Amino acid sequence: MTRKCVLATCQLNQWILDYDGNRDRIIEAIKTAKAANATLILTPELCIPGYGLLDHWLENDVYAHSWDIAAGIIAHPDCQDIIIDLGLPVQHRGCNYNARLIALNGQVLAIRPKLDLCNDGNFREMRYFTPWPRGRFEEYALPDVVQALPRKQKRCPIGECAIEALDGSFASETCEELWTPNSPHAHYSLAGVEIVLNSSGSHHELRKLDARINLIKEATAKTGGVYLYSNQRGCDGDRLYYDGCALIMSNGEVLAQGSQFSLKDVEVQTAIVDLDSIWAHRTSRSRGMQANDPSVQKLKRIPVDFRLCHPSITLMTRPTEPRDPRYHLPVEEIALGPACWLWDYLRRSKAAGFLVPLSGGIDSCATATIVYSMCRLVVSEMQAGNEVVFADAKRLYGEGFSANITAKQLCNRIFSTVFMGMQQQSSKETRARAKELAAAIGAHHIDTNIDTMVQSLHTLVADTLGFEPKFKVHGGSQSENLALQNFQSRSRMVLAYALGQLIPHSRGGAGGLLILGSANVDECLRGYLTKYDCSSADINPIGGISKTDLKRFIKWAETAFDLPVLQQFLDATPTAELEPITNDYVQSDEADMGFTYDELSILGRLRKTFKLGTVGLFQLLVAEWSDRMKPRDVYQKVRDFMYYYAVNRHKMTTMTPGLYLESYTPDDNRFDLRPFLYPRFTFEHRKIEGMLKKMEEGEAGVNGA
């Protein structure tokens, strides 16, 4: 066995429209791969302009600029003698395509457009691109910037194809194509292709990584072969965090895996692969019969006068040993994913830091703990010698910065927390918890009361309307009670933004702080928040996380981050503290909502992920919850859930951009596209009541017998 080669893949922290920065990161990855004697490198999907351009994909400039960068890369002195698979958009005969550009020594070998576009969930690729028909193969007229290169190349092939080097072959598929039932890699394997390249723009979702890795394992375990997977990593300007995990697999086994969460802008994975080992996985006669199918043999092949096996790789060189895939626990994903997203957002926005209104409850506690996790990652990366992180941290920290700062010191400089209490509503316990948490993580903390703000608004409204609104516990109506709570909530939002603009100046610095929201996915789903209260912020790192998962994260962080104070938050009853505390009444979130957080998670997942409406929810849950409640009680839960979801849906249209992490997030601006003016579901209610009548009549008959 002598066909051993070094293959490389990478994960890059690209930023939309950052052409210079994106180019530099790509070139750094290529140089790193060449230093390891790699002869082929794969880069992420659309890595030249960045993946998440949204409607910028409709602009001609993006296509022209992408070719400018591509020409510069393939002609760069450090990018020769290695096959490069780059991601960029192309225009061809009146259509836009999401494509791969495969190049060697300044020559474009082929352009391979994406066959299957991702057009659900967070993705709208068919809004911008056209899927390339399978099997289509023709010529592409290269732009002037490529024709001007030393090779003076004017045309290249475009379409579905395989590249045949002198000692091996490879073909590309792109992101979504791996997830489709009829994935191209199966076709390529039958056609004898030995290496499949998959460039992706795949975002982080809690508990999703194993599904991705299992798909790639299956792709190579069934018919043998090598599979290279490249992914973007980081926040490229939107609600998504791309989670890297570049992979090299061979015959169903992992040879190399990149980190899922990291502050590194460039990470390259290489492996020494024995192409001859693939043969043993392709000797079944049933495979041979399928391989001779005429449709398989129609795959276009482009010969290239180049060897994948580098002269430095000899008979004595040992191939890379297989290893087990690496997964994070969900609590670790919460600790690391949002923290990395926050760091990217902070350094790229050029803001001075973050501010979070710290209430003493679990949600704002979780947000603050994630910021502390970010500071820990930054300090760790500086200690590891990451020059980019060092430069960003130095700029943010300002005077007194050193390479030896601690996470608490960094947190104190860039993170402010504020407790905005009310003398009658806020308990001593919540105020104390907020103060203790801020001290434990090192945050700059402000403890203040907003009674004067709220009273001024109260007086103005009373004078304007000619009556004194009262809380429910003082004899007021539901409307009065809700309005008075909202006076407080919205006052806190105004003060948070005022402090965010002025705290840096008060501390001798400059710039402004980004305000962080702390509304979790379940409260957004139920609408249990005030429009334009502290849920209105600049960004929200926990907007896609359930209350149940947040509690698990806090319990884990208590030990992992050595923060004993977190146990107090877990022991406390979740409360908004917007109503006066009396001897026999303390406001409780779950009592107010009429649902436990676990119930909301179940209802939300069934509504979105399982795509159930009102009747479908009842039909499933009447059996699932039969051990805990009667059918009519299940109906009431479903009815109440859909009612509150509908009447509060308008709140989602103005929600703070939250990091996407959960499959049932109700984010209206990208993921969960729904109306915000609903009827009362009377038709659905009649259907369920008819089902209940039959169930109750049947039960009465059984009991009577």
From TrEMBL:
One Gene Ontology cellular component annotation held by this UniProt entry: cytoplasm
Catalyzed reaction equations: deamido-NAD(+) + L-glutamine + ATP + H2O = L-glutamate + AMP + diphosphate + NAD(+) + H(+)
Alphabetical list of SUPFAM superfamilies matching this protein: Adenine nucleotide alpha hydrolases-like (SSF52402), Carbon-nitrogen hydrolase (SSF56317)
InterPro entries for the chain: C-N_Hydrolase, C-N_Hydrolase_sf, Gln-dep_NAD_synthase, NAD/GMP_synthase, NAD_synthase, Rossmann-like_a/b/a_fold
GO terms for biological process, alphabetical: NAD+ biosynthetic process
Residue span(s) of domain CN hydrolase: 5-275
Pathway assignment: Cofactor biosynthesis; NAD(+) biosynthesis; NAD(+) from deamido-NAD(+) (L-Gln route): step 1/1
EC number(s) from the headed UniProt entry: 6.3.5.1
Keyword terms: ATP-binding, Ligase, NAD, Nucleotide-binding
A GO term, aspect molecular function: glutaminase activity
HAMAP family with a match to the protein in the record: NadE_glutamine_dep
Family (UniProt): In the C-terminal section; belongs to the NAD synthetase family.
Name listed for the protein in its UniProt record: Glutamine-dependent NAD(+) synthetase
Organism annotation: Friedmanniomyces endolithicus
Lineage of the organism: Eukaryota, Fungi, Dikarya, Ascomycota, Pezizomycotina
Gene transcribed to yield this protein: QNS1_2
